[in-house]
Design brief:
Layout: H1 4-10, E1 20-23, H2 29-34, E2 46-49, E3 55-56, E4 62-63, E5 70-78, H3 88-104, E6 109-111, E7 115-118, E8 121-131, E9 134-142, H4 152-155, H5 161-165, H6 171-185, H7 190-200, E10 207-212, E11 215-224, E12 230-234, E13 237-241, E14 246-247
Parallel strand pairs: 1-2
Antiparallel strand pairs: 2-5, 3-4, 5-9, 6-7, 7-8, 8-9, 10-11, 10-14, 11-12, 12-13
Helix pairs in contact: 1-6, 3-6, 3-7
The structure holds biotin (BTN).
Residues 28-30, 52, 55-58, 61, 63, 72-74, 115, 125-127, 138-140 line the site of biotin.
C-alpha cells in the first residue's frame, strides 16, 4: 500500500512527482517508465513500487530489493526541459544524499559515478536510461532492510539506513524529499553542483582501479569535469573516464 497522503504532505516540487503511478508489484520501474514514453508529455512523472521483482542495475547487474522495505522508483525527465541534463547522474546522487540527510541526519557519500555509500558499503544506486528524448532516472535505496534481509551476494558489500540507524523510515517521505531536491538541482548552477559532488566523493586523491577494454588500469582520482566525467591521473597523464565501475 502506498500512503499518498504522506507523500503529498512532503512533496514541495512543482512538476516532479505531481503525477505518480504506484504498482503493488512490478518487474522494473525503469521498464514500466520506458513503456509509457510514447503516451504524451510525461516530464516529471514517477513510477514507484513496493515490490520490484526483477530490478536492473548498471552494467546488466541485477538490483536486489526487499518488498515494503526498499525504495525503488523511476522518474521520467524530458531532456529539453532541464538545464543540467549532462550531469543528471551527478545531480541525482546529490539529491539522494541531501534527502537522506534530511530524513535521518545520516551523511552518505558518493563513489564515482553515482553509487551512494554509507560506512564504506553501498546503500543506493542510480540507473539512467535514454529513450525518445527522455531520460529515465531509476533509483534504488536500501531503507528499512535488516542485515538478515540482504542476500548472501550483497551482505558484505551493502547496508541500509535501518542497519545504520536502527529506526524505520517512511518510504513515501523519503521519495518526496528526493524529488524536491532533484527538481531544484536540475536548474541550479553547474559549478555549485560539481563542488557539492566533490565534497561528498569518498575517493578524491585516492588510488582507484578501473577496466578499459578488459585491461585493469590504476590511477589517482582527481575529481570530475563540467560534463561529469571522472578525472584520473595515470602515470602523470590526465585521462577522462565516462562510465563503468571503479574499485577503491
Ligand atoms: C546500480 O547498479 O547501482 C543502479 C541500480 C538502480 C536500481 C533502480 S531500482 C528502480 C529502478 N528500476 C530498475 O530496474 N532499476 C532502477
Amino acid at each position: 500500500m502506498f500512503e499518498y497522503n504522506i507523500f503529498e504532505n512532503h512533496l514541495k516540487s512543482e512538476k516532479f512527482g505531481r503525477h505518480i503511478k504506484y504498482f503493488e508489484s512490478t518487474a522494473s520501474t525503469n521498464n514500466e517508465a520506458k513503456s509509457r514514453l510514447a503516451q504524451g508529455d510525461c516530464h516529471g512523472h514517477v513510477i514507484v513500487t513496493k515490490n520490484q521483482t526483477n530490478g536492473r542495475g548498471r552494467r546488466n547487474n541485477q538490483w536486489f530489493s526487499v518488498p515494503n522495505k526498499s525504495l525503488t522508483f523511476s522518474i521520467i525527465i524530458n531532456q529539453k526541459k532541464i538545464k543540467n541534463k549532462k550531469i543528471l547522474s551527478i545531480i541525482s546522487a546529490i539529491a539522494i544524499i541531501k534527502a537522506i540527510k534530511k530524513i535521518s541526519t545520516v551523511q552518505c557519500l558518493i563513489k564515482w559515478p553515482n553509487d551512494i555509500i554509507l560506512n564504506n558499503q553501498k546503500i543506493g544506486g542510480i540507473l539512467i536510461e535514454k529513450k525518445l528524448g527522455y531520460m529515465v532516472v531509476g533509483i534504488g535505496i536500501n531503507v528499512n532492510e535488516k542485515k538478515s534481509d540482504l542476500t548472501i551476494k550483497i551482505k558484505n558489500t551493502s547496508t541500509s539506513l535501518r542497519i545504520n540507524n536502527n529506526s524505520l523510515i517512511k518510504l513515501e517521505t523519503l521519495l518526496a524529499y528526493i524529488l524536491n531536491e532533484l527538481e531544484k538541482y536540475c536548474e541550479i548552477e553547474n559549478e555549485y553542483l560539481i563542488n557539492k559532488w566533490l565534497a561528498y566523493c569518498c575517493h578524491i586523491n585516492k588510488k582507484i582501479k578501473f577496466y578499459e577494454n578488459d585491461n585493469m588500469i590504476s590511477g589517482i582520482f582527481k575529481g570530475i569535469n563540467k560534463n561529469g566525467q571522472g578525472i584520473v591521473n595515470i602515470n602523470n597523464k590526465t585521462e577522462f573516464i565516462s562510465s563503468g565501475m571503479i574499485e577503491i
